[in-house]
Structures are given as structure tokens and as C-alpha cells.
Amino acid sequence: MRNYFFILALLAVLPFVSSCDGTEPNPNPGTSVNGKTVIVYISANNSLSTYAEGNFADMLEGYMPPSKANGEHLLVFFHNRTTPPTLYELTRDGSGNPLKEEVHVFDMSSSSGDEDVSSSAEAVNTVLSYVKNNYESDHYGLILWSHSTGWLPEHYYTEGPPAGYPNSEDAPVEPTSPMDIYGDAVVKMAVDDGVQPTSFGQDEGTLEEIDIKELAEAIPMHLDFLIFDSCLMGCVEVAYQFRNIADVFCASPTEVLANGFPYTHIIEPLFTSAEGVKEVADLYFHYYADSEVPGAAATVVVVDCSKLEPLAEACGKIFSENRYKVPELDMSDIQPYFRSNKHWFYDLGAYIKALEPSSSLLDEFRQAMREAVVYKAATETFLSIQITDFSGLSSYIQNPEEPYLDDYYRTLDWNKATQMIAD
């Protein structure tokens, strides 16, 4: 899920550059044995379709590798309501003009044959395998762009548990008012248009979505970085699920305003800086934090995935000794990252502190967090959420009234490592 945020000057949707349209497919995709390939995977066959066009247009205004660059490739997979699933390569010619070259159009027909589906593990694997086979590089980076709902299982965000579980007939989500508290700042939510927010991605018509475990398995190459430009993915469960896939992980523990990251500015550091992801996170944060437009807000975290095992070990010790305290926690005292009654995302640091572990275990946890979380930033508020205790990562806190979530949560790598919910 992403929130829709109208800012006429700041967040205007730019038209595509006409000189870049109508290009012929590239019969000979570039192959290099070194360098870096950055992929932006935009799955926008949904209510974000127009915003996707705006972000794509923003990329054409920003950094692109020179046409004859040695081993640098900026690839954009784009699928929205009006564009079939297509891979493009963005470059600049010798005069600095942007070039948008159509590389490949994918057949991603649904089982019914009448819809293209890009929000499936198979689709992600198909696109990334094509990139791996045709753009051999020493370094890959991936930005995933769509709706999302963190670690939650498929359909849970809007439908609740399946038949056979308590409360299965009562959807757990109360629709948020389209006007919200910011007047016309939030114009509609992702539950509009007959589509559903998902773990990652969504396609209209088919309601196809991707479980995060399946998404991790679908990525065929190791990544220097994985950035989610989508809602609620800055949770420890998601970061840990991708710990062996990516060196660096970047996401937001809250929702993300519909215009997402400032693509005119964020691509260059991903190619040119050793601290590129941290620079991207900082650019994203200040794009909203420095805005004078009411309601502009952002949260973001960057994680060193090599440091997640010590964090899991520290949390596992705390859960082992303090798990029995969870039913007695005063949830109103723990920093939330959700609105309405979508109570599945709390601040990890605040959660651990509320368990009141021994000072030695708390010190071990805090040291692990300092090493794992290499950048974090949050505005004082995000829509209706007051942010006063920000560790960077969110976490689920077990709710005995939701046994389906308990069963699903046990399948996540984070729970296997920490036993937050005991087997």
C-alpha cells in the first residue's frame, strides 16, 4: 500500500519525454563482465499507475549511464494500466540527451489469459533471470516499486484470516477515510479500485500478489542492495528474510506517500558512491522532511544485512527469557507504525524495551541494533502517527486473538531464528 499525496509543485506527475517514446526493441541487449547493473522493478498495474509514470519520467531527468559506459546499466521494468510488462534501458547519448530503449516485452499472461501479471514470484524471477543472462555484471542492485504490506501473508491486510480460523468472517481492517486528517492530501487508499494491498506488489483484476518468502526465492542473483519503494517493508521480518540475498537493505517502516522516492536524484549515488544507499535514504527523507507542504512526511531505514544474525541472536535471548510478558504489555505505550486498526507493526526497539530484559541483554540488543541499522530517519509525524521512539525497524508483537498470524509467522526466517513465537 502507498498513500496518495497531492502536492502540485512538489509531487506533480511529469509527462513522458516524447523523444523517448516509440523506440524499437533492442535485439542485442548489452552484456558486460564487470561494472554495475541497477534494476528498477515497477509493478503498477493498479491504482498507482499514474504515479509510476511520474517516477519513470523523473528518472529521465536524472542520472543515466553514458551510452558507451563500460558495464554500467540502468534498467527499468515497467508495467502499469497502459503499458505491457516491458524492460527498458536508460542511457544518455554523447550530447547528454536521454534515451529510453525498449529491450524486451514480456508475456506475463494470467491463467485466464486476459491479464498481464507482474506481481508474482514467477514474473519477478522471469525479469531478473533475463537481466542476469543478458547483463552479466559484478554488481547488481534492485529497487522494488509497488504496493506492499510488510511481512503479512497474502490477502490478510484486507480479508483477514481464511475460513476455519477465529474471526475469519470479519475483515480486520477498517477502511481509512479517503480524506483522512489532511483534507485532500490523501485522496484515496489502496483498497480502492477492487485491488488489495499485499506483501509486495498487486495486479488489478487477478489480485495477484507475492509472499515475501516467495519473493526472496525468486531473486536469482546476489544484490549489493535491495530498496523497497513501497509501504511497511522496513520491518525486521522482511530485512531478515532477505539477509542472504542483499548486502544492504533499505525500506520504510511506515507507509510511503504515493510519489515515493525522488528518482531525479537517487539514481546517481547508486552508481557513483560507496555509500550510495545511505545517500539515497537521506535524499528521500529530506525530500519530504524539508518540504513546507503540510503532511509531507517520511520514515526510512538502511540495514547492513551482515549484522542481522547478531541482532537475531540478541533478540532470541530476550524472547526466551521474557516471552511470557507479552500478553501483559500495554500496547498503547509502544511506538506504532500503523493507522486505523492495522496493528501488526510496532517499533522493534520500543518492543524490546517494553519487555524489560536484563541490563546485559538490553545492552547486547542495543549494540546489535547500532551495528545493523546504519542509517535511520523519521519525521515527527507520519499522517496521523506521532513518532517519538524510532529505532528504524518495525516488528510484529504476538496477538493471541490472531492464531492464523501466529501460524504464518512461524514460517518466517526471523521467527525460526528468534522464536519470538515459540514452536
Automatic annotation (TrEMBL):
Keywords (A to Z) from UniProt: Signal
PROSITE patterns to which the protein is assigned, alphabetical: PROKAR_LIPOPROTEIN
Top-level taxonomic group: Bacteria
Signal peptide per UniProt: 1-19
UniProt xrefs under InterPro entries: Peptidase_C11
PANTHER family according to UniProt: ALPHA-CLOSTRIPAIN
Protein's UniProt name: Clostripain
Source organism (scientific name): Candidatus Merdivivens pullistercoris
